[in-house]
Amino acid sequence: MRAAWGHLLILAAAFLFGWSAHSWHNAQTELAANQSADETRRVVTEVTRQSGEALEAKIAELKANEIHTERETRTEVIKPVFSNVCASDEYVRLFNQSVDKAERTLSGKPASAVPGHAASPFRADRH
Is residue 34 scored above 90 in pLDDT? Predict the structure, then answer.
């Protein structure tokens, strides 16, 4: 019986040693995971900080190079409307006629339409 108690004591000691070894292993694994997470957090924070600084520098550079323009409004009278009777009808007609002539000259349009009808490609007198 004494031998059985000895085997039981050795078995209990081996169980306690195994339990302790398992706890130590889990503690080391958890410590390694925490250290890895902390290192990853530090790296991500540093990369984010550097990226933010680069972005701020680029924005500052763009603002420094920004071109400031002043808006200028120009009004051009193409065909004036005579509201007062300060010009005769003949003057208004001549003015409008010269404006039309100038527009045709600038646009390259002919003064009048081509006389007659356009030739048809299927005429009877074609050879």
Answer: yes
User: H or E segment at 56?
Assistant: helix 2-64
The confidence band for 111, taking pLDDT boundaries of 50, 70 and 90, is low
Q: Which residues contact 109 (CB under 8 A, 6 or more apart)?
A: 103
Where exactly are the structural domains of the chain? 8-63, 76-111
d(CA 31, CA 103): 87
Do 104 and 111 form a contact (C-beta atoms < 8 A)?
yes
Whole-number pLDDT of residue 17 = 85
How many CA atoms does the CB half-sphere of 81 hold within 13 Å? 1
